[in-house]
Amino acid sequence: MDHLDRGLNYIALDLKTAKLFIFIGFKVIIANKKSSTKSKRITRSVLALEIYGMVRGINILYIIAIIIDIPPILTIVYTDLYLLYKCLIKLGTTKEKRLIINIIALRQLYKNRELIEIRWINSNNNPVDAIIKSNCNKALKTFINTNKLCIRVEG
């Protein structure tokens, strides 16, 4: 592959073990595993961790789109942290100087319509909690059993 010296790690996707996740409508995810990384910086705020995670996810999306040479992907970002939603949509501010650049970059993506929507999802209805938290809600189980999902979102 080109540009192996730029610090990018390419991981081959094994289609034999890949899992297909289909969420409401046309939202389809193909994955071998979920990604959850620790921040290399000492962070004392949940807002910082959420912003770093969101920026990382959006960067990975664009890298994949460039590598497999597909047109721009319409991206809707969900967060269950209301403070982050307020910072991005309602133009809230933070005193944490390290975060300001990331917040401005995310706002610019939203303004340029590279991010179609940014939505806040209520934690009590978040089906992803079943994957990432030990004591989760029953949203994913209900979705699997009934094929129906009630999610409260704003945005």
How would you characterize this protein structure?
The chain is α+β, with helices and mostly antiparallel strands and 155 residues long. It folds into two domains: 4-121, no CATH class; 122-155, no CATH class. It is built from five helices and five strands; from the N terminus they run ββαβααβααβ. It has helices at residues 46-67, 82-88, 97-111, 129-132, 139-146, and strands spanning 19-23, 27-31, 75-79, 115-121, 153-154. Strands 3-4-5 form a three-stranded mixed beta sheet, covered by helices on one side. Strand 1 and strand 2 form a beta hairpin. Helix 1 (46-67) crosses helix 3. The longest helix is centred in the middle third of the chain and has 22 residues, at 46-67. The model is unreliable at 22-33 (pLDDT under 50). The chain crosses the membrane at residues 60-85. Keywords: Membrane, Transmembrane, Transmembrane helix.
Quick synopsis:
The protein has about 160 residues and is of the alpha+beta class.
Topology (elements, then pairings):
Blueprint: E1 19-23, E2 27-31, H1 46-67, E3 75-79, H2 82-88, H3 97-111, E4 115-121, H4 129-132, H5 139-146, E5 153-154
Parallel strand pairs: 3-4
Antiparallel strand pairs: 1-2, 4-5
